Amino acid sequence: MTDDIDRAIIEALHRDGRRAYTSIAAELEVSEATIRSRVSRLQESEILRIVALCNPLTMGHQSLRLMIAVRDHTPRSVATALMQIPAINHVSLTAGARDLYLEATCRDLSHVRLLLEEVRRVPGVATADLYLLTELYKDYSWVGLRGGSGQSGSAEGADAGSVSARIPG
């Protein structure tokens, strides 16, 4: 369970994922040890992940999204198999017309073709709808956690984010 201090730590790291714990401690008026232990607990419980982000399109790579329909297997079992493919960096169960949502990054179109072949070979994959990104404006999926999930703070710094957080309701 998270509290106001955890949320403030997440917000501070959201603004700058490389920010020193001493600086965060001073801002929140707690000890550095408190910040260090709370960040560690948040990471261990998979509520917080500190990451570096880049726009793959600016590096000449292909960024794509896939919507997968599953047949004759459970969506969870197919998701588990798809997680093992290195080019896939996001796998989610969905509600709606398709069972799974995937995000992937490929070196080039040839790599996209190979990835699609690999995805289609996974037992249970019935169809794979491909969406190839042509321009990426924003890809900080955790920003939507603010407000509605109990994280307070303004949207200031949203585009500079480097922290992924799942905040329990």
Topology:
Elements: H1 4-15, H2 21-28, H3 32-44, E1 48-50, E2 62-70, H4 75-82, E3 88-93, E4 100-106, H5 109-121, E5 125-132, E6 163-165
Antiparallel strand pairs: 1-6, 2-4, 2-5, 3-4
Write structural notes for this entry.
- The strands form two sheets. A four-stranded antiparallel sheet has the order 3-4-2-5, with helices on one face.
- Helix 2 crosses helix 3.
- It has five helices and six strands; from the N terminus they run H-H-H-E-E-H-E-E-H-E-E.
- The protein is 32% helix and 21% strand.
- The protein folds into two domains: 4-53 and 140-165, Winged helix-like DNA-binding domain superfamily/Winged helix DNA-binding domain (Arc Repressor Mutant, subunit A), CATH 1.10.10.10; 56-132, Lrp/AsnC effector binding domain/regulation of amino acid metabolism (RAM) domain (Alpha-Beta Plaits, 2-Layer Sandwich).
- It starts with a helix and ends with a strand.
- The protein is of the alpha+beta class and 169 residues long.
- The chain is elongated.
